[in-house]
Predict the 3D structure of the following.
Amino acid sequence: MGGDYAPEEPVKGAIDAVLDNPKVKVFLVGIREQIERELKKYQYPKEQIEVIPATEVIATAEPPVEAIRTKKDSSIVLGLTLVKEKKADAFVSAGNSGAVLAGGTMIVRRLKGIHRAPFAPLIPTAKGPAILLDSGANVDARSAHLVQFAHLGSIYMESVLGRKNPTVGLVNIGAEDEKGNALTKETFPLLKKTKGINFIGNLEAREIPKGGAEVIVAEAFVGNVILKMYEGVGSVMLQTIKSGLMSSFKSKIGALLSKSALKKSLKQFDVTEYGGAPLLGLRGLVVKAHGSAKAKEFRNTILQCITFKEQNINGKIQKYLEAEKAVEKEAREAGQIDHK
Amino acid sequence: MGGDYAPEEPVKGAIDAVLDNPKVKVFLVGIREQIERELKKYQYPKEQIEVIPATEVIATAEPPVEAIRTKKDSSIVLGLTLVKEKKADAFVSAGNSGAVLAGGTMIVRRLKGIHRAPFAPLIPTAKGPAILLDSGANVDARSAHLVQFAHLGSIYMESVLGRKNPTVGLVNIGAEDEKGNALTKETFPLLKKTKGINFIGNLEAREIPKGGAEVIVAEAFVGNVILKMYEGVGSVMLQTIKSGLMSSFKSKIGALLSKSALKKSLKQFDVTEYGGAPLLGLRGLVVKAHGSAKAKEFRNTILQCITFKEQNINGKIQKYLEAEKAVEKEAREAGQIDHK
């Protein structure tokens, strides 16, 4: 029931996903009559879609924690509970981000050893998609959290996108090692010495769209600004180009001739191609789709969940957490660190 | 001597500025022979340009504070000293940003009452230029600093760009009043109650390119990311569009026909049109041009300095500081606050 185009677009996206993949089963959680009215428009294998009725709706501006606590019969709470109870592998929502985040942590819960669960969307770059984490879940995070984000992102890029030993960059205001604010100055040496990731150093924001790193690590406030600047600059530039092309007769003819080539080359900057933003490090998969998501994004997000499961991402995350724990134990025994 | 194209481009920019405005006098500070070799290429009124010889150069990656302390005969130290001694009204450099910042604070010094001097460049938006401060001078700033930035930016936009009662937005991860990290949550109510600015609330980064506010207030790390995302997304999209247009014979013809219209409409996103980033709140004007600045940007930056002087920006800033002091004094006397 979440997002700007519910229930039409989520339902259509679910239909597209089950038609695309016979192995997937989608539970559509929400107001039964509204969902069933939409479902009637399509032909699809009935056993692949099931409606789970919910009587409450969490609105966009509602205070998240309060909403999760009180609206027990909302689509977000019921959907997350399906994941908690292992009846579903993943939960997808385009609704209230704060509620998805709070509910994910409160209901599905973090894996043991995970400090914070970051939102980790794929973002377009000139060299293909990169993962950005944290894009907004945990503001004012600490350096140890950022180090975990680097590991989570590396596991995701390696398993879901097949990037071997993906490059990890720390977003900073300069490329030199000693640059930054208190947080990045503290995080840099930790990333440098942590094993199992391919840390390439500080990354200035201008290098992100150019493909400067495959795993982009940032504090959530900064990550959120990166994501939204992408959207903002992209849409304003496209608007400017469009009105430029429509400004004279000559340029209109030009636009007509170059349209299909332009469309094709700009497609790589279409965020909806990449699906939603997973909340990594929970005991099940929770994915936040854009509020403005349409059927294509819902379909891609559902298919992304299948890869997540098939690649056993959470198994790999748990393996990393065990290794981390072993390293910490060893260090504690050697009296080297007094952790946290 | 600073920037990627010194001394050719700064000299050419100075020539263009004096030819454009008979009232301006430019001191070119640097290696005498190199500057004079460039000057010989041009015809210009000799009394409007004077060479100040400097024997040392501060390199891009040098530690700033150390460089300012030890290289007393560098162009940055000598140029800033001209401003300190009131022999010049403004200093313009495309050199080491950290050195310009450290030198500005150490040599020219802050106005009494200014907590921090922010870099404050104009950035392009769909509704014309906006001012972004702080774009990188003072990381880990406090809420009281951000409130001053709002005032400094408002004075600049009103005086230099003629925007009456310019709108002020606080960069945040959500538009609702209570959103944010510790810093923005503390800053929001202060901005709301401060007099003399037109605070319109939180501003999501995606609204910046759309022209969501005329004065954009952000902590320096965030401001720097905004500025660099602008550059990065802009250049990658233009590159993508260009290669898209060159991908087929048909699209090449289309590109030829639409080129001039496109160029014109994209000009508003050309950062060099707006000159450099002033460091506001010092006892004289210090402006940092882009490292990649060419003659046009140097010329525009010099002309921007004239407006700064003619509009008596520093007089207006001082008036605001006096008003702020009076408010604080009143509050202290009333026992309401224990300042800082």
